[in-house]
Hints:
Helix content of chain A: over 70%
Oligomer: heterodimer
Radius of gyration of chain A: 17 Å
Largest sheet of chain B: 8 strands, antiparallel
Largest interface: A-B, 90 and 70 residues
Structural class of chain A: mainly alpha
Strand content of chain A: under 5%
Largest sheet of chain A: none
CATH architecture of the largest domain in chain A: Orthogonal Bundle
Number of helices of chain B: 6
Number of helices of chain A: 9
Distance between the termini of chain B: 65 Å
Order of helices and strands of chain B: HHHHHHEEEEEEEE
Shape of chain B: elongated
Amino acid sequence: xxxxxxxxxxxxxxxxxxxxxxxxxxxxxxxxxxxxxxxxxxxxxxxxxxxxxxxxxxxxxxxxxxxxxxxxxxxxxxxxxxxxxxxxxxxxxxxxxxxxxxxxxxxxxxxxxxxxxxxxxxxxxxxxxxxxxxxxxxxxxxxxxxxxxxxxxxxxxxxxxxxxxxxxxxxxxxxxxxxxxxxxxxxxx
Amino acid sequence: xxxxxxxxxxxxxxxxxxxxxxxxxxxxxxxxxxxxxxxxxxxxxxxxxxxxxxxxxxxxxxxxxxxxxxxxxxxxxxxxxxxxxxxxxxxxxxxxxxxxxxxxxxxxxxxxxxxxxxxxxxxxxxxxxxxxxxxxxxxxxxxxxxxxxxxxxxxxxxxxxxxxxxxxxxxxxxxxxxxxxxxxxxxxxxxxxxxxxxxxxxxxxxxxxxxxxxxxxxxxxxxxxxxxxxxxxxxxxxxxxxxxxxxxxxxxxxxxxxxxxxxxxxxxxxxxxx
Lengths: 189, 274
């Protein structure tokens, strides 16, 4: 059974209210989702609550998952990012990257995953993404990071970077096209 | 309806990241509604780039205690409305969350995008989608069999010789049009709850309680469909102690902070065998 089939099987079982399926999916994706949440709200209690909200939402909406939209991993990440950004917005003040970085410094780094094949695929992909990000022009990297991890709108980014709005828009697109070119995957393993 | 301009491609990038400014969103939506194939292809291409951004976050391990908390939170979700959920419009492009609540126009666009974008998908992508659908169909078939089994068990509950029908009535001073009924089988500890006109005020929610000799026990916050109708199935209702009554209280949205005591007023109550 492929990973895709395994994930879809888990979602179908979740839709039928089988919580052991959620536990199985949790073991595959919790570290990734926690990492995304921690990058946005900072590691610790907030990220943990985002993680919990993400799984509760996934549990409630498992029957609405549509595989034509992307992989299960991409769907879970979308939920986690959205919940984390909501949380930052509801906290009123945006967490500065330094806060997140300081919290990450004390958080436990992810060990190799228990599933060697999936872990290997994800590690390789992560390596590709890291090198693709490094290859971006600094402004291009900055705009996608501000958009993705801080949820800033284009005009907010323009103010933050003191750059013309039109330029911010074109940096964003160029960055995504380069990422897509260097890491041509449909979803997340 | 606007003709394609190169600026639309830049807006597509902000769209897949969910960070379009309001005015730009309106512009892009009205443009996509024209079925611009260039932009639809661009959205597909860019969404892959946006998805992998998740992997640029430093890899951390989720705290070990989180797993137990997540599973407990999900176990608390046992009161489920049987009313069908509103189907989201389907789009072949994984949408990133928008900064503000999606407008009706966004969903209308998404619905239009399905028709238009699906037509433009390359053959190999169709193959991938078909494989996915086949895998999904197989998984669904297995799940359906399990569901059918579960349905039989629920049908048996209604016919169980020991099942009790508990009618809940409004308490003095509360809305006298509220109605609810619980069919409860002490042997299997299962119950089916139905209610009508359970429409809580904004930011409030109805919570269901089982009352035993040792006090109330929360069975969870009940969500109703827009008409206020609830059909919920509960398992593992109550402990070894016999349930004396069922009640609904009106609480703040997340329910009472104490699982053993309603915080808000009790609005409906019905006694088992009473």
